[in-house]
Amino acid sequence: MSRPLLEVRGLTMRFGGLLAVNGVDLTVREGQVVSMIGPNGAGKTTVFNCLNGFYRPTSGEILLDGEPIQGLPGHRIACKGVVRTFQNVRLFKEMTAVENLLVAQHQHLKTNFFAGLFKTPGYRQSEREAMGRAAEWLERMNLTEVANRPAGTLAYGQQRRLEIARCMMTRPRLLMLDEPAAGLNPRETEDLKALIGQLRDEHGVTVLLIEHDMKLVMSISERILVINQGAPLAEGTPAEVRANPDVIKAYLGET
Amino acid sequence: MTRNLKTALFSTVLLLLVSYPILGLKLSVVGIGLQVEGADASTLWTIGLAAVAMFTWQLLRDRLPGSGQLAGLVPSVPGQVKHWLTLPSTQRWIILALILVSLVWPFFGSRAAVDIATLILIYVMLGLGLNIVVGLAGLLDLGYVGFYAVGAYTYALLAEYAGFGFWLSLPIAGLMAATFGCLLGFPVLRLRGDYLAIVTLGFGEIIRILLRNLTEITGGPNGISQIPKPTLFGLSFDRRAPEGLQTFHEYFGIAYNSSYKVIFLYLIALLLVLLALFVINRLMRMPIGRAWEALREDEIACRSLGLSPTIVKLSAFTIGATFAGFAGSFFAARQGLVTPESFTFIESAMILAIVVLGGMGSQLGIILAAVVMVLLQEMREFNEYRMLIFGLTMIVMMIWRPQGLLPMQRPHLELKP
To answer: Which of A26, A38, A90, B202 could join A8 in a cystine, given CB atoms 3.0 to 4.6 angstroms apart?
Structure first.
């Protein structure tokens, strides 16, 4: 069994009187695909927001590779290799698809003011490589044709793919996808499933997933965490979760 | 119809309220007192006619061609030409042509025209600098004139107390303005939108009031005068050189002509503007330029991708301030006198108007807008109606070209097929 990449212990997030997340434990091992499921408003996205530093958790511990990261600002956590997509896609809508991918490489590029001003060879090299990586991922995501279109004008499915590509440009270790299949047609969902598999197998990325599409979740996840009203309800392999009576009652049984 | 009647009545009353005091009442000096004089008959007739015209137009505006159709009546540039005009390569050629023309013409132009052109260049520089902050990074800065003042006073004080020359003070002034930009930026940049605007507005005023009240150092409301003019490698452009300097006309053995100085100042301003254009052009294509734009569009997404919003904003603020510092020290050198009253809020508003008028982010647009705004300001015949024209231009722009005169087409990065 691979070592744990992300360990969450007793994560609690309180907004005034509202207990949004209550004592969530989660372990994501390197190379796994782990899903979080739960009814709407269960606190899944709040967990994400705590993990990537948008919220400072009220209590609890978040360890990335054994190193505590709770309370760090969002960009620092992103630089450590934890990046995410958003439930409602957040692209830079007026910038082109390529530019979106270039922005995401910011932390890996030469940003020295004078190097850029005088276009030193090192700077040109760094820009060329960035462009190359962007081109590569556009190709992989089948977006090359729309590379120079403003991101906001792309079709919804393309925007979703571009957002994932943008995350990949930061060379993440843990990729968190917040409902990536929402609004996709069955065909696109199939592609997404294949893509997540590829990201894990070929690029060594660990994936943490929030998703409502049970078919996708059950087929792709190694482990599933069920959250209900902010508290963990069950945790286990897809088969275990499916057989858990509490889960059936609280979540699956309702439909 | 009743709705129109209401609007019409309201507009007419507003027109009367505004125009009567402005056009109808005059203050005249009688002895040591002031006396208010009423308007003469013809002015009253004009106001009355305008009121009637306003009333009828407002009442019948639904039956007249609407504002949408009106916009169509304005000769609009055909689509293809418009596209061509906003292409980066075209803009580059236009800029190159403009540079050549602007290098050559002062030798043939009149002295007054060159002087106004120098003023225009100062505003181009300020517009370009503020454009980084407002147009590219999307931070509404209403106190930009504060950094301009810091630049101007840096040179003035260095010249007054340490005897520094213009060329040595120029980078120091830029650095000082940058420092102030950075210092202000740290606490302020966590604010957004309107709040940022208010705080920066306050900052601009604080600097001005500080300069006015530090009487022992800055000379208070009287400012600092007799600031030396720039020299050309130690050659002065005055009729008689100060101690230790040689004059330009003596060195080259030509007759003294006061317009040399004006042309020289103009060329320095041009040099500074070209430098600013070059730097900003590069910046826009650098990672930091992309980060500015990304931040303007979505701060949360930026953070989730590992871009520190504070650093990105701070860099925009600091670099923008640097250009204001350069412009300020040049302004001090040109005027030979700085007073706090040169750095009032109205200056900030003017610079912001240039940026908005030019089209946020567009450099060519800013040059055009600076020309328009400064000329408008310098037209003495219209002096009384300057602010009216100013407002009118803004309204026309909002209706006709809300995206600015020549909106920027961002450098698109082409993938090789």
So the answer is: A26
Chain A interface includes B63 (CB < 8 A):
no
Q: pLDDT tens digit string along B280-320? A: 888 888 889 889 989 988 989 999 999 988 889 999 999 99
Sheet of A174-178, strands arranged across: A82-84, A174-178, A206-210, A33-37, A223-228, A231-236
CB–CB contact A144 B415 (8 Å): yes
- CB contact under 8 Å between B413 and A131, yes or no, is yes
Query: Is the CB of residue A109 less than 8 Å away from at least one CB of chain B?
Result: yes
Domain positions in chain A? 1-81+172-255, 92-169
The CATH class for the domain spanning A1-81+172-255 reads alpha beta
Distance from CA of A77 to the nearest CA of B (A): 7
Note whether A91 and A79 are within 8 A (CB): no
C-alpha A140, offset from chain centre: 18
A144-167 pLDDT, tens digit each: 888 888 899 999 999 999 999 999
ipTM of the complex: 0.88
Nearest CA in chain B to A150: B412
Task: Give residue B68's pLDDT.
Answer: 47
CB pairs under 8 A between A and B: 114
Amino acid at B76: S
Distances A130 to A84, B28, B279, B410 between C-alpha atoms, Å: 20, 70, 22, 18
Contact B386, B353 (CB under 8 A): no
The single-letter code of the amino acid at A211 is E
Residues of A in contact with B309 (CB under 8 A): 75
pLDDT in tens, A74-129: 899 999 999 999 988 899 988 889 989 999 998 888 777 787 778 888 888 888 88
- Is B299's Cβ below 8 Å from some Cβ in A? no
Under 8 Å between Cβ of A193 and A220: yes
Query: In chain B, which residues have their Cβ closer than 8 Å to the Cβ of A109?
Result: 287
Domains within chain B, CATH numbers bracketed: 2-68 (no CATH), 91-400 (1.10.3470)
